[in-house]
Specification:
single chain, alpha/beta, binds zinc ion
Length: 238
């Protein structure tokens, strides 16, 4: 089975379309949360994901947009974007978010947005935080988003993108927490849209980046009257 794994699309339709085109033929699409927030196309992104055979878990921004996460936990710009997003979503889009389960297990993977012990808010930004989360899932691999940065943290404390594939094949290696990076708002200094591809037959797990029309995504954020920082950061990937 071939799977494309996306995270933190953040209502960036141009990035989502570019990733879908780049990934080509896959059997399933997995989304690790935050389909909406920050960007100008929350409705189009939910509707496009809905046309694909996919699994999704909800992110903090998705939950904030439908009244299931307190807006005072977000910074000012994020909150402004979520108040705007809530007005764009129809009842069917809210129902879509409300129906998502916070944790999905598809052996050998566990899928969550933030971390296995706190699926909504915790940032796995270091090996120490990753190690503290290892007892909170039981599969060889856990897939997370939320930090908008690629990651492959092993339970022995190293960062090793290449060895994570061995865990996919059930080999006796450390367990891993992997992050594809952000599809719609990268923050690792690389503005290209991020996603992962998995081939469970070949035992391959790969991180991909794809150029997309960030000018148009930024133009739409400005045209919607959303905070300018959310447009300009798409150019730098920060
Ligand atoms: Zn996010």
């Amino acid at each position: 089975m071939r799977i494309a794994i996306l995270a933190d699309i953040h209502a960036n339709l141009q990035a989502l379309e570019a990733v879908i085109a780049d990934a080509g033929s896959v059997d399933e699409w997995w989304c690790l949360g935050d389909i909406v927030g920050y960007g100008a196309d929350p409705v189009a992104c939910i509707e496009l994901m809905s046309t694909l055979p996919h699994l999704a878990v909800p992110g903090n921004h998705d939950l904030g947009a439908v009244g299931e996460a307190a807006l005072d936990r977000f910074n000012g710009n994020a909150r402004t974007c979520l108040q705007w997003t809530a007005k764009q979503l129809g009842s069917e889009h809210k129902r879509y978010v409300l129906a998502l389960a916070p944790k999905i297990v598809r052996d050998p993977f566990t899928l969550v947005h933030a971390s296995p012990r706190d699926t909504v808010w915790e940032y796995i930004v270091s090996g120490d935080v990753a190690r503290a989360n290892m007892p909170h899932f039981s599969t060889p691999l856990c897939l997370v988003g939320h930090t908008h940065r690629t990651a492959a943290f092993s339970e022995d404390g190293t960062v090793d993108f290449a060895r994570a594939s061995a865990a996919l094949m059930g080999q006796p290696v450390p367990r891993f927490i992997c992050n594809p990076g952000a599809t719609g708002q990268p923050r690792d200094g690389n503005p290209r849209a991020a996603y992962m591809k998995v081939d469970t037959v070949k035992g391959e797990l790969a991180w991909h980046r794809v150029a997309y029309d960030w000018h148009e995504a930024a133009r739409r954020i400005t045209a919607a009257g959303l905070p300018e920082i959310e447009a300009s950061r798409l150019r730098t990937g920060n």
